[in-house]
Amino acid sequence: MRKFFKSISLFVIALAPSLGAIPVSAATPTHISVGGIVSIVREVNGVSNPVTNDFSYTLTADESNPAAIGGLEDVAISMNQVSPDTDGIARAELLLNLSNLTFTQVGDYVIHVRETASADSANYPVDETNEYQLLVSVRNVMQNNVPTGELTASLADQPINVDGDKVEKMKFANYADRVYLALAKHISGNNANTDEYFKFRIDFENATVGDVFTISGQDATVTYKGETIATQTRFVVGEENYIYLKGGQEALIGRDDDYNNEEIPIGLRYTITELDAEDYNTYVDDSKTESKVSTEKITTSYNDSQDLRNGLDPYLQNMTDFENAKNTTVATGISSIVLPFAGLLAIGAVSTCVYLAISKKKQD
Questions:
Q1: Contact in structure between 153 and 32 (CB atoms under 8 Å)
Q2: Is the CB of residue 97 less than 8 Å from the CB of residue 27?
Q3: Residue 265: what pLDDT?
Q4: How far, in Å, CA of 188 to CA of 82, rounded?
Q5: What 3-state class would DSSP assign to 295?
Q6: How many other C-beta atoms lie within 10 A of the C-beta of residue 240?
Q7: DSSP label of 232
Q8: Which of 52, 149, 166, 253 has the fewest beta carbons under 10 Å from its own?
């Protein structure tokens, strides 16, 4: 029996060199040496002003990978005042270096890339549609057709999109959520002047200085307090901006009809003030209390609108209505023009009566 085990031991020792060809043990960890850099592009569509925001991306190893991948970390693209192009698209690119990833076993690996967060998701929603796969092949380094105990890893030259197609870059995109404001002017009362223009100012508390919003709905020129004024077609945050309307008119702020584009971000706090018009009583948004300043409002997404859910026009939530009322009591007696003459007639009548009374007394 001892001779048998000794024979087996000698056989195994003799066979040991050939067993090295079987990859049953972990080799030395390796990094990607071929094509370790890929590109992530983030586009924000439908903007007319510079974009500032951070977008986060998660790199996840597929569950069916041969082994764990070391060094996988989330990455981010930061936009800092990125100006849009003529098509209204702001764009930023990140070159993702995967050379720090480690692989310990031969096989084919899949890495999923998804956009998972936006620092300002109200204005720049997460792209939940696009997803990509990165493919990494890990193989033995061979010498004389025998594994050397070293590995080599290479990244496929192109990512794969959700449709299974190869693409040059991993592109994520979404439309910015934008709205516009509406300012309406109404007049009422028997002494209101239908041809009179009224002056308004919009004050944004947290808008970005330098942002530009389109103004439409005003007459090109107006006469205000005897002065002819060419009205503004652009509202520039941080500068003096005035809007002039007469009864029955409405101005839109932040809607560019040429590009069918809305421009004002979600979450801006603002008030609207009517200037002058001291001889009118002013009421804002059906309020019964006289005031020339609106309550503070916050721009709200149409997607979150209760009006939208109720089937009403969602833009009404970002509308402010000013009504100017001017009434004068209508005279029901003798007019002020006739009054002096009526007084003289009354004095004459009294004098006549006194004269007649005295004359009659003398005759008696």
A1: yes
A2: no
A3: 96
A4: 47
A5: coil
A6: 7
A7: P
A8: 166
